Amino acid sequence: QDEEKWDFVLVSNIHEVGSEKEIKRKKFLDELSKKGFTIKKIEDKKLFYGVRAPKQIFQKYQWLLRNPDSRLQDPNAHQNTPVTTRIRIVNFILQNTTTPDLEKLHDLMKQKVFEATFPLHEKEEVREFLKEKWARWRDIFCQQPIEKIRCYFGEKVALYFAWLGWYTYLLGIAAVVGLVVFVAGITVFNSSQVSKEICEASDTIMCPLCDQKCPFWLLSDTCTYAKATPAPHCPIMLFLDLLQVTHMIDNEGTVLFAMFMAIWATVFLELWKRQRATVVTDWDLYRWDEEEEELAMELINNLQQDTRRYQHSYFRSTIILLLVLVMIAVLIGIAHALVIYRVIATALFAQSNSEFLREQANTMAVMTGAVLHYITIVIMTKVNRRVALYLCDLEKPRTFSQRENNFTVKIFTFQFFTNFSSLIYIAFFLGRINGHPGNYVRIAGKWRLEECHPSGCITDLFIQMAIIMLLKQTISNVMEYLIPWIAHKLRKKRQRPKKRSVMLGEEEEAEDPCKKQWLSNYQLNEVNVFSLFDEFLEMVIQYSFTTIFVAAFPLAPLLAFCNNLFEIRLDAIKMMRLRRRMVPRKANDIGIWLQVLEAIGILAVIGNGLVIAITSDFIPLQVYKYTYSPCMTENSTDVDCSTGYINHSLSVFRIQDFEPYTKPGLAPTGLCCRYRDYRNADDYSHTVQFWHIFAARLAFLILFEHAALCVKLIAAWYVPDVPQSVKNQFLERKHSNLRKELRWVMPQKV
């Protein structure tokens, strides 16, 4: 039975006898035969070649990478090689076997000499267990069998699912805290003095939000709870009104939650390091050397081959750096294009014949802009991948691991700017560079830059985050499952009708027990070297959304938690049922992704500090309470210290000072309107309050970031990376080895 197990299958089209492709295929297979490989050919619509490596190859591998002490004790002992190790070694040899024409397998695949190459999903006990107990939707709340995953897919895949499970587990804590903060914001909103003032400001006339046909509006229009029946005729309007409640998310609880998430991100990574140390120690891989293993496989493949040396070129690095900067500039340019879209869309919605669109022009522009942003993310993800791969080819890395690390850094950088450039603009620039009534900043001298949502700038960020996360976690996940599922069904249907031949040989070949298994594996979707990378990238981008702007969207951890419960099973189903078997890879950590996650943790502290200091109204409100409120000016103790804040935060604009080509709606009875800013009524220069708030924002930002970073450092120190049990295990092992060496020395002295 063991003799019928095959390590790999190569698939080729049926080429004409004597054709160039047929000759190249034969040369490659001959090279494998010279190395002792057993090759079996099965013909159907395609040619299938099963390859099995000789035992000597695995014996060499075990000998080279065994513990030196165990070699001395029993040099002839050879353990059975795990299937994952067999596949990994055979894959290395296949990829590095060179024909007399100096062509390797990837060159032959580019020339369509071979169409596919893959290891087989074997009908073994581990696979059946994983299919029944892991790769099913009903097991969504069950613990993952990490050891079984390792036995079937190798250590790298097992570590991915161990990390994803640990991340999801701790995300549950952040999700509960975020939900409590959000619900508390809704509860407090109804009794908030600021909210009451907004709802009661029925005589506060606000300036129009656009140049043409936009009406003057009342500040109380942004209140939800003051209206007994807010737009009962329109569910969408009710939804938009709910989103306008900025104080649900812009409150003291959000500041504490942002600090909590900074600590959570650090504790999560520190606890993961401990978890990873325990797991890889159990696998006896804690001190595993990837470079040593690769050198060993190079020698097994070709004893005469010289190893590739590390190389570095400052000229090449400079070129790559410049190209990366150009790509980043392009991505920032796309973010600018989205800004221009929102500006033009706001103007067009404001001039619409629909009353609903006119009234909600700003919100509709933000929402459609968010959808457009999601579409650009989908498109640019494909572009970013091609550019990153091209730049990696220019670098000429020595090993696949080095290439993967370089690719990871580049693709994450590109994806970060793709996903967050527009959010950064909304968070820190929207409504701050657009000027003021009578002197607006305009694009092409025509369209004025958009303003923040009437209820506050943080509402725009909330809407953008909510839409992008919901779209990414619904549409993207549905497509991630449906596309492989449909592709698998189509491939299966296409392969179903078989050729019938009267030739005795072909009929006998159809009886071969391997044929059905090879065909069923071929009908599964193709995997590539970056299949697991894609899953990691998706989760790391989600981690960025969950931490960097969480102060503006406390529900982000909850959405991520719900998504991950499905993501784990979705990935399991894809790997077990819809895709060919992934080539197992050995690993003792998640690689450079850990450094990326740590960098995101620092960005989260900076991002949330900036959101609270610049985007939210938290600092202006605190400055008012402790400087200009009745509590300070009148020494009143029986009133809420935020009384009068709304009127204090609005500046006065004389209607007669509008630009000549501005045509607002019907003018109010008064001669003035109000707008959000701190400017004098006579010359529209900034007031003293503006500079007080500006100084307070900077002070808070510096204080918050230093405090959060100190807490992160303390948390990192408080939670050791490696558990004491693991350290003691290595200590005992070293002690035992030294005692053995001493026993060898002592008799010789006697």
UniProtKB/TrEMBL annotation:
Keywords on record: Cell membrane, Glycoprotein, Membrane, Transmembrane, Transmembrane helix
Membrane topology: Multi-pass membrane protein
UniProt GO molecular function: chloride channel activity; protein dimerization activity
All copies of domain Anoctamin dimerisation, residue ranges: 83-146
Keyword Coiled coil in annotation: no
GO cellular component: plasma membrane
Protein location: Cell membrane; Membrane
Pfam families: Anoct_dimer (PF16178), Anoctamin (PF04547)
Tagged with keyword Membrane: yes
Positions in coiled-coil regions: none
Entry-linked InterPro entries: Anoct_dimer, Anoctamin, Anoctamin_TM
Occurrences of domain Anoctamin transmembrane (ranges): 149-730
Transmembrane segments: 157-186, 253-272, 318-344, 364-381, 407-430, 540-566, 587-614
UniProt similarity note: Belongs to the anoctamin family.
Protein name, UniProt field: Anoctamin
Organism: Balaeniceps rex
Species lineage: Eukaryota, Metazoa, Chordata, Craniata, Vertebrata
